[in-house]
Design a protein that fits this description.
Layout lengths: L2 E4 L8 H12 L5 E6 L4 H8 L6 E4 L7 H11 L2 E6 L5 H8 L3 E6 L3 H21 L4 E9 L6 H11 L11 E2 L2 H9 L14 H28 L1
Parallel strand pairs: 1-4, 1-5, 2-3, 2-4, 5-6, 6-7
Helix pairs in contact: 1-8, 2-7, 4-5
Bound molecules: adenosine-5'-diphosphate (ADP) and magnesium ion (MG).
Length: 228
Amino acid sequence: MPTISFANSKGGSGKTTSALLLACELAHSSSVTLIDADPRQPVTRWAALSEKPASLTIVSNATERTVLDQIEAAAVRDPFVIVDLEGTASRLTSYAISQSDLVIVPMKEQQQDASAALDVIAEIHRDMKAVRREIDYAVLFTQSKVVAKSRTARHIARQFRENDRVAVFDVEINERDAFSALFAVGGTVRDLDPKSVNNLAAAIDNVAAFAAETIERLRKAAAKRKVA
Ligand SMILES: Nc1ncnc2c1ncn2[C@@H]1O[C@H](COP(=O)(O)OP(=O)(O)O)[C@@H](O)[C@H]1O
Ligand SMILES: [Mg+2]
């Protein structure tokens, strides 16, 4: 039932990668719909490369005219609905945000991504006003270096983490071979050949931790709504 959207108007911030990682991880134990709401259809292209998990349904060609109905239909059917959004602020983005239980704002630890993330957060607050309810969101650092982060990266991450008004995932999605390989070969991280990508075990652990924290955030958001 919960709907999770991935939004950041900056292209390359890691929306599609993180959405796909989460969808495949949750699909191990649950039914999941992943809605491809980017006109370039990156998720749909990934699905055409190789076999996808049987419990994962891909909905292609979501537009501002269709996305509300597509989310509604998927939410009735599946325990998790994930929306991969395009890289521009649009009515489509606002519609998806308005229906979300959690909006994940992926960003690289770079200034341009940081500015775009702040714009998206402002947009989420406007959408909250429009629908008159609170919408939980959290920034997710992506493509972060496992070792030797730059000074800029550390500075930007610290600014976000020390800002009490912005929720930030404890987990970061690291920059990993396994995660970029998915778009070349299809399938899930768990399907990859350990001999063909570096440190697959760490990549699998990273995704499991991301899914666990997402579920925890959804649980807390639901508890908060019950109290309100
Ligand atoms: N965690 C990661 N590790 C390695 N490569 C990544 C990671 N996240 C994204 N990429 C690569 O960066 C590029 C942009 O990522 P993508 O997820 O498509 O961003 P967006 O959907 O925000 O435009 C892609 O080529 C993708 O393979
Ligand atoms: Mg994308």
